[in-house]
Amino acid sequence: MMDYPAILSLVIWLPFVVAIGFLITPVKHAYVRYIALVVTVIDAILASLLFFNIDKEMPLGAFQWVDRVTWIDSALLKSQYLVGLDGLSAPLVLLTTVLGVCAVIASWHINIRVKEYFIWLLVLQTAILGVFTSLDLLLFFLFWELELIPMYMLISGWGSGRKEYSSMKFLIFTILGSAFIIIGILMTFITSDPNTLDMTMLILNSGGNLIQLGFYGATFVYFCFFIGFAIKLPVWPIHTWLPDAHTDAPTAASVILAGVMLKMGGYGLLRINVTMFPLQTVAYSYFIIVLGVISVLYGAFMTLKQTDLKRLIAYSSVSHMGLVLVGIGSFTSAGLTGAGMQLFTHGTITGLLFLCVGLVYDKAHTRSIPDLGGLFIRMPLVAVAFTIAGLASLGLPALSGFVSEILVFTGAFSGFPILTILAVLGIILAAGYILWMLERVLFGEVKPKVEHVTDATLIEAFPLVLLVIMIIALGVFPGILIDVLDQAILPVVTKFGGV
Amino acid sequence: MSSLTIWLVFLAPLTSFVIISLIVRPFFSKHQWISPYLLIAGLSVSLVVSVMLFLDTLYTGGPGYNSAYQWIKINDAAIIDLGTYIDPVSSTILLVVVVVSLLVQIYSMGYMHGDIGYSRYFATMALFTSSMIGLVISSNIVQLYAFWELVGLSSYLLIGFWTERPAAAAAAKKAFIITRIGDVGFLIGILFLINHSFALPLSANVNVLHIPDICSLAGTMSAMIVTIITLGILSGAMGKSAQFPFHTWLPDAMEGPTPVSALVHSATMVAAGVFLLVRLFPFISASDTTMLIIAGVGAFTAVFAATMGLVVNDIKRVLAYSSISQLAYMFAAIGLGAFGPAIFHLITHAFFKALLFLCSGSVNHATHTFDMREMGGLRKYMPWTYGLMLVSSLSLIGLPPLSGFWSKDEIMLSAWEKMLHGSVFEITIFALLAIGVVLTAFYTWRMISLTFHGEYRGNDVGDGHGDHSIHESPRVMIAPMALLGVATVLAGFLTNPPVNVGPIHKHWLNDFISSSIVFHHGHHAAEFSVLVAILSTVLGLIGLGIAVYYYKLSQNGKKEPLESMKGFYGLIYNKYYLDDLYENIIVRNILQKRIVNIIAFVDKYVVDGLGLFLGFAVKNVGHVLGLFQNGNVQFYTFVISLGGVIGLIILLMYTPGLGG
User: Fold this and answer.
1) Three-class SS state of A497
2) Do B72 and A403 touch (CB under 8 A)?
3) ipTM of the assembly?
4) Which residues does chain B have within 8 Å of residue A436's beta carbon, measured at their own beta carbons?
5) Which residues are bridge partners to B173 per DSSP?
């Protein structure tokens, strides 16, 4: 099925190639957004074909649609262009391309430096897809770094508020994380015997003696990776770049930032920390879960103080990403699958929330909660989508957030009952801040600032509808996603005696 | 009966919901009148199916468990599947839910006529009814929990139905959050259950989330764990059924349209807590501690809520406190082991309380107010409403031969029997329940007096017609009320008579409910006691007599008799200051002012200051990098190209055969 050569590389590089095309051809500004839309739609269709054709019976360390080209083959460094897809990366590739379409539509009204804007947006998509599919650590790192440039440009160029400060803060925090990651990668290469950066080999030998460092040496490498990914996720106390970056980014960048870029951190933890260093994950599970629970509660409490819609959602992301850590730390099949699913569901839910806020901001020119009110009357369509996203975010059953939360909770409960109960308390706070936000923004009388706003147009409504369908579909039929994730996660858990 | 047929009872109103919300509302906004008919059609299908299920259960024991779809599998002993479990308990409650919902929808056609959100109203009602049906037929505890949350959602949407009213939005939020606090306990209970699955031997062949299996699970756990899980489930039930200390959301929920109060906030959803406890009764009753707490909470709330009902001036809030109090009777009955009487009272209460609410809606339809101080003398203008309100009120008071008498008498009888062999605790329970009867009679008659007797005190003369603008409600509203009136009169004696009545066996309903296989030894109804029946009737008459005395003598109720008891009056008039405690002290002062402010301070000056060095770096590096960010596309392109060229060179250098 779907066994075409280089199809995965096509998915990854298509946006980049088109971006280069924009750069070197005199395409008219008016056509740029249409071309970008077509490209992202094609990319999303291809990605969903890959997602639905993933082989759920693959053993540990096996990948599909692998493209392998030797790149650097010297005594000093051996690296390949190696990409492939498995149950863990396929959902995230799908998520990236779907949110890519949403981001293009959310940027429809951009009218300053249009061409440059869409070039960055498309490059960003390739960079993120590259992170999720790379099977070579150096390639992974290159994509990881490549993603910074377009995101920095999008925030600083088309953002609002203190956009220079926020984009630079984003850059510095992430580069700090990258420094740790590159140390981890080099240590892995140097100490492995034979020297390799091939992730498939590292996965197959996870917990074995391919990396000749002993337990504590490997622990050092483990935490190098952990810090780098934790900054991206983000984990308390290194989360402070996120609210600033979110708040000042343009809508599309916020969607991508919260929807997929945070997931790069979660993906890195699952792919590298959990899969390649399972012994360390088990050994330091207590530490990981404690950090997760702090993030859950801390993020939730912080939302109660916010008056800017985007900042509120940003802190709710901190809270929800804490659950990913709780699931990872549990090292159970339910917990890890829940963590993987949380990455995907949070991507769709928060993507939808940011799209709605973007629409409100475009029309009312404010995101300040006290200035908003009565949107149910003025923007019924957006209000309904906003409500569904909010309810999914607070974990209402039949919507996708519930499934990932309950998986994480059940996974973590047997080993860490008290900590899990603390995390469960987070869902009361989630109900509090989400409903408080909906009450202020959607209910009540129409405030002066929103007196003349109009509802979403047909094209603006399309991404809302798309994400709502995904949220409901995964809430009712979570098996679609769980079965795929289990392919990558169950073998790891079984290999190391988990449940 | 096939699995699909059973699911039809749930899918039919769900289909109505989908059609109304996705087709009628967006595309046929000029034809909103069609929405109620779509819902009524869906519910009619449900009615047919639920009658079939009921008869099937009655004569052949019913279809029992049918699994439809595996939702999430955690391990072999903990599988979340979507299935149906039709036994005497669920088939009976299902029938009540569908009948009351159908009647309320017909009534709503009149009551909501002309409302701008006509279709949205019926769409949400359809969502509610299908979720409630889903809750009743669930075979899996997590499935039940999911529908449990979905009825909470529909309740949220219906309380906040008039979105432009800030009070409605606040009440909706309050209802959702307070019930969710209870639900967290429920969820933790479920987590403990799932955790137990790891301890079970593989040969056990049970699913710890399957409701009939849970009922026989207690023996395999330590008593401590049973108590923890049952207390968790109890907290969910208390939240949903608005028992102390979670009761504060229900009076505020009256901000929603009145038919919603009738269906969601008195007859069905709030009774879900009672349903849940009965559903899992064999498991719940395995913990003596939990049973004591249920009985204690029930008896206390029965009196506690009734006292607040004594002085409220909003007719719907009187009824709301009354609902809390009556649900508390059911809790007390469950705590005493009498789950049969609890279900019996749930059914009769569903009918007469729904009718009471619909009557208050009818009064509101005429007077445009819920404040009883602006009513009075309505009996002249609204004879049908008056008659039906009278019947349902007397049923609430528990006077024979109305349905409320029989069911409440069963509860009182159970408490009486326990007291005869019991200690101080059982005596206290009975005493509280007895006091509750007096208080119930008092506030009920006060409501009747203020609303229908005396002279009209309102000033609804906006159109210059004076009293003549007050008129009886249209037939589409009166007809369903009349049907509920019939049920209010007959549903007690005919369904669960204390003696054989022709073909109806004595304690028929009780025996039917008890025959569910999950109850290994069913509840044997106590023999009818004339003494207890007379006692509870006399108690009711005492309360009624006091109310008649006060509200007849003090003309038109200008002064409340309780106002002379200053301290007590202030206490109950301010709802024991619990709203202040929750909202002002706990949420505002402790949570928002203290905890959140401290964390925000930490976030800003400590955690973010962690990057003090980073901040410094941002400032300086930013300055340098700022030079690169000059908005000049050509410059950017140059830098990118440069990077690309360097990359290419590196690539070529290391490509085998060229440089590497």
Assistant:
1) coil
2) yes
3) 0.89
4) 173
5) none
